[in-house]
Each structure stands twice: as structure tokens, then as C-alpha cells.
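Problem: given the chain below (161 residues), write out its structure.
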Amino acid sequence: MSPAEKTPTGIKVVATNRRAFHDYHILDRIEAGIELRGAEVKSIRDGHFSLNEAYALIDRGEVILRGLHVIPYKHARADDQESARPKRLLLHHQEIDRLFGQTTIKGHTLIPLRLYFKRGMAKIELALCKGKQAEDKREALRRKTADREAERAIASHTRRG
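Solution.
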């Protein structure tokens, strides 16, 4: 499946932050809308953005997404486009209060996992995460390698017989 194909649920996934799955333990997931300006939506639809360094924080009762770099749309006016502008995430107050309580725990942070369009609206899947230690990353890599080798062995065994 290409990165911008629609899933059966009508969601068009534009980007996935695969690095987050490697660096963090995912504790909880939540969907949020993004407050975008002008041609930022068109740039995101075209895939001209970077999700790798993005993170969210709670500031004065609002969830702010920082580090999402949206490259200015080439056919838009140049005076109203800032590539690294902090973007407000749209959540209910109850969700913000719950996330605020969970992010005050040491080591917990909000990381975006996916950016997608749902019924034409830009959405982001946020995850409450806890950082992995180096040995956790090595263990996950070992497990992944062992699973891959087991699948290869099963596949080669079934092809022979």
C-alpha cells in the first residue's frame, strides 16, 4: 500500500512516525484535529512536511504541536507561511486534562504517530509514550530478527513439501 492510499475506513494516511515505535513504549493513543493556516493543508496533502522531530506539549490548557515542519506551498503567497510554526491541536477539555495528568509523570511525553485525513479534515494520532532504554531497543531488535528468521524457515519448509 502506498503511503497516501485510503484505507477501507475512509482514512487517507499521509505519514507514519516509525521512529516513535522504535524509541518509545506506546501507552495510550488519541486522535486530535490540527489547526492549520492557508496553504498548509495543500502542502500536507502533497507530502511536503516532516513529522520526525515533532512532539506535543500542554501549555495553558491547550495542546501545542511543535517540530512539525510544513514546507511552504509553492503556489501560495510567501508572506504568510512559517515552516516550523507551533500548531494547536483540537481536543476536548476532558481529554486535555487527562493528558496533562499523565504527562506530569516523569518520562512520559506526547509523540505524534500518524498524520492522516479523515473525511477531508487533517488529523493526527498522538501517543502517550515512555522512552525506551538502550537494552529495551536491543531486545526488541533481537525479537524482531528471531521472528523474521522463524517466518523464513517456515516459508522455506512449506515451499519444499
